Amino acid sequence: xxxxxxxxxxxxxxxxxxxxxxxxxxxxxxxxxxxxxxxxxxxxxxxxxxxxxxxxxxxxxxxxxxxxxxxxxxxxxxxxxxxxxxxxxxxxxxxxxxxxxxxxxxxxxxxxxxxxxxxxxxxxxxxxxxxxxxxxxx
Length: 138
Prior knowledge:
This protein has one domain (2-137): Roll (Nuclear Transport Factor 2, Chain: A), CATH 3.10.450. 35% of the residues lie in helices and 43% in strands. The chain has four helices and six strands. β1 and β2 form a beta hairpin. Mean pLDDT is 89; it is low at 3-16.
């Protein structure tokens, strides 16, 4: 019984105990994602996703696994100057982090518009590296 209680206390102390390093680590990954978008490098963007990732974009589709890279390619062709800003990070467990952030980009075309939106990402540690696991944006 004592082991169970100690295990629960340990689990509760890890969950939610995001550090400043977690936030800066996630922001650095977002900066890498944005840099890849600026280069038009959808392969580098997709490489930041876990193999079992799920993307829930604003068009109500569900995009998974290998379909993520071509979807990112379609998004990237219609936008420029992507900026992702991490506003909140919560450590859910040693291998999962929940991030909330703000995104902005410029549309392309005759009358470009600056678009701002919000997103939620659950990051999963895969082989020691943080990967986007669940990506919800609108």
